[in-house]
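Need a sequence for this fold. Nothing fancy.
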């Protein structure tokens, strides 16, 4: 089945994806600097494999490293080649993802997300490994008049984080035209949320909570009194921002399908990955409260720089090409996300 390097493999989406590739017969190396994840996740993935009686633990390894560390990344590729098991593809999650920090620290974001990716691509090319799936983001679109965003919607990121994602997309587009046999999949995620049904893998940012879900869980657990909602006068039905939430398990499955499609068809693919349904922040709070029988007090705060009112995917392309669509709804997202949070924080 081949050996896959998963950069950022112990992070939120990476950990679910490592597990899925292992369950589907791939050997996996997770390469991660652990700046927003922890080594425990590696052992949790192994435990989940054992629970399924899958004796795959030897097929899963971890290297702590930075994608900007060319020497170490090269060594990983060479080591695997020298034992006759070369890395045949990369799923590239590693990167920084905070819109707000990217506004204050743009150089850090360009260095990690763009220079880091250039390093990775150079090393892949030197080792004749030319299959990659890259984590892009709906932030590449920015504010748009369209209700649903398809892959041809104008690209207009309105924060440095989104600009770094678009820069990497352009580099990958150039590579695919270089006729050097690259097979490239770019997935533009909308809003991943939820957790693995075991309650063992999920999202736990080490600092700077920015995604809405971990913040809602902190309030549900009474670690915080209330949640701040940024803006109440957005041009939407209830004045709060509209986003497109999709379950992290559905998102992981999109990676596997994209990768397998690339291997059999030499292609350059760009897909939106979302549910195709818009949910306002207030609607999401209500669904979370109803699902988990709790109360989430909130207060409105000023709109944040770099935010947009609405980001909802048109997912026709990925559905028609890969036969992928979401299998899990917002109820499952809220239930699994809260169940993971409770386990992680020993709340019973
Ligand atoms: N979660 C989202 O809402 C979302 C939405 C759109 C796109 N994305 C993109 O998806 C990818 C994964 O997101 P996530 O939510 O799993 O984030 P995450 O922070 O949980 O995972 C990223 C992982 O990459 C690692 N990492 C960061 N910089 C690194 C470096 N220089 N070298 C090696 N490892 C490094 C971190 O330690 C972390 O484990 C990111 O590229 C992110 O920009 C995420």
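Here you go.
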């Amino acid at each position: 089945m081949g050996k896959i390097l998963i950069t950022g493999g112990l992070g939120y989406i990476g950990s679910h994806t490592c597990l899925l590739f292992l369950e589907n017969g791939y050997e996996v190396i997770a390469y991660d600097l652990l700046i927003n994840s922890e080594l425990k996740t590696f052992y949790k993935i192994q435990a989940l494999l054992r629970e399924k009686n899958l004796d795959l633990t030897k097929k899963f390894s971890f290297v702590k490293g930075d994608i900007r560390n060319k020497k170490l990344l090269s060594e990983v590729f060479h080591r695997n080649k020298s034992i006759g098991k070369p890395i045949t593809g990369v799923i590239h999650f590693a990167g920084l993802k905070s819109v707000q920090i990217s506004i204050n620290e743009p150089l850090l974001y360009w260095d990690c997300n763009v220079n880091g990716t250039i390093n990775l691509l150079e090393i892949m090319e030197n080792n004749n490994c030319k299959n990659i799936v890259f984590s892009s983001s709906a932030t590449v679109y920015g504010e748009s008049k369209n209700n649903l965003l398809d892959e041809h919607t104008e690209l207009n990121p309105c924060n440095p984080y989104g600009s770094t994602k678009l820069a990497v997309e352009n580099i990958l587009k150039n590579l695919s035209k270089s006729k050097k046999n690259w097979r490239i999949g770019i997935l533009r995620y909308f809003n991943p949320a939820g957790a693995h049904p075991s309650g063992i893998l999920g999202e736990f940012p080490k600092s700077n909570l920015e995604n809405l879900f971990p913040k809602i869980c902190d309030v549900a657990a009474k670690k915080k009194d209330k949640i701040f909602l940024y803006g109440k006068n957005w041009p939407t039905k209830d004045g709060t921002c509209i986003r497109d939430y999709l379950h992290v398990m559905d998102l992981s499955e999109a990676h596997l399908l994209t990768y397998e499609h690339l291997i059999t068809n030499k292609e350059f693919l760009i897909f939106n990955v979302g549910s195709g349904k818009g949910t306002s922040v207030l609607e999401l709070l209500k669904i979370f409260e109803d699902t988990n029988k709790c109360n989430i007090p909130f207060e409105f705060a000023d709109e944040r720089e770099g935010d947009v009112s609405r980001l909802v995917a048109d997912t026709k392309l990925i559905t028609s090409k890969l036969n992928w669509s979401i299998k899990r709804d917002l109820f499952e997202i809220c239930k699994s996300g809260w169940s993971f949070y409770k386990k992680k924080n020993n709340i019973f």
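For context: Residues 20 and 253 are 7 Å apart (CA to CA).
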